[in-house]
C-alpha cells in the first residue's frame, strides 16, 4: 500500500462570451428539460387519473338487428320475426312471418350525430288474428369518441 505524500487539485475554468454555441446549447437543453415533460403530461391527458367526467353526445346508429314478437289472442301462439338468421333456425317456422320494414335516422340539429330514429313496421296478419301486445328488441351501435368506447346497446 502506498501513501499519498502530496496532492493538489487542478481547477480549470473555461470562459467564453455569452453569445456562443456552448451558451445556446446550454439554454436549449434547459428549455427542453423543463418544457418537454410538461408537453408529454399535457398530451397524455394527465398522469394517474383515477376518475374523470366527460360530457359528450354519443353516436348512436341502428345496427339492423331486430327481434320482434307479437302477442295475439289466437291460441296458436305468438308471431315472431328476427333479423338474426341463427335465431330464425331455432324458432318454429309456423310462427315466423316476415314484416315490411322501413326505417330512417335523422339529424335534427345538423351537428353530424343522429338525433331521431323512426321505424315503420308492417306485419302481415290473418283476418282472425288480433294483436294484444308487442315485444321488440332493437340493437344499436353506441360510440363515444373522446374515450374511444364502442358497444352494442339494446
Automatic annotation (TrEMBL):
* Protein's name in the database: Transmembrane protein 231
Summarizing the function annotation, the protein's role is: Transmembrane component of the tectonic-like complex, a complex localized at the transition zone of primary cilia and acting as a barrier that prevents diffusion of transmembrane proteins between the cilia and plasma membranes. Required for ciliogenesis and sonic hedgehog/SHH signaling.
Against InterPro entries, the record matches this protein to: TMEM231
PANTHER family found in the cross-reference section: CHST5 PROTEIN, TRANSMEMBRANE PROTEIN 231
The reply on keyword Transmembrane helix is yes
Membrane topology classification: Multi-pass membrane protein
Q: Where in the cell is it found?
A: Cell projection, Cilium membrane
* Extent of the signal sequence: none
Record carries keyword Metal-binding? no
Give the primary localization class.
membrane
Q: Name one GO cellular component term.
A: ciliary transition zone
The beginning of the lineage is: Eukaryota, Metazoa, Ecdysozoa, Arthropoda, Chelicerata
Sequence intervals crossing the membrane: 23-42
Which key words tag this protein in UniProt?
Cell membrane, Cell projection, Cilium, Glycoprotein, Membrane, Transmembrane, Transmembrane helix
Q: Which family does it belong to?
A: Belongs to the TMEM231 family.
Report any one BP term from Gene Ontology: regulation of protein localization
Amino acid at each position: 500500500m502506498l501513501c499519498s505524500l502530496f496532492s493538489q487539485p487542478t481547477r480549470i475554468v473555461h470562459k467564453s462570451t455569452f453569445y456562443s454555441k456552448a451558451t445556446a446549447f446550454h439554454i436549449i437543453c434547459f428549455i427542453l428539460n423543463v418544457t418537454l415533460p410538461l408537453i408529454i403530461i399535457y398530451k397524455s391527458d394527465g398522469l394517474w387519473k383515477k376518475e374523470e367526467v366527460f360530457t359528450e353526445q354519443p353516436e348512436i346508429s341502428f345496427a339492423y338487428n331486430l327481434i320482434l314478437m307479437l302477442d295475439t289472442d289466437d291460441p296458436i301462439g305468438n308471431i315472431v320475426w328476427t333479423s338474426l338468421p341463427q335465431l330464425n333456425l331455432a324458432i318454429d317456422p309456423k310462427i315466423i312471418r316476415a314484416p315490411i320494414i322501413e326505417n330512417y335516422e335523422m339529424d335534427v340539429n345538423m351537428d353530424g350525430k343522429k338525433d331521431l330514429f323512426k321505424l315503420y313496421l308492417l306485419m302481415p296478419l290473418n283476418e282472425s288474428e288480433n294483436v294484444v301486445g308487442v315485444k321488440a328488441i332493437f340493437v344499436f351501435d353506441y360510440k363515444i369518441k373522446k374515450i374511444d368506447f364502442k358497444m352494442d346497446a339494446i
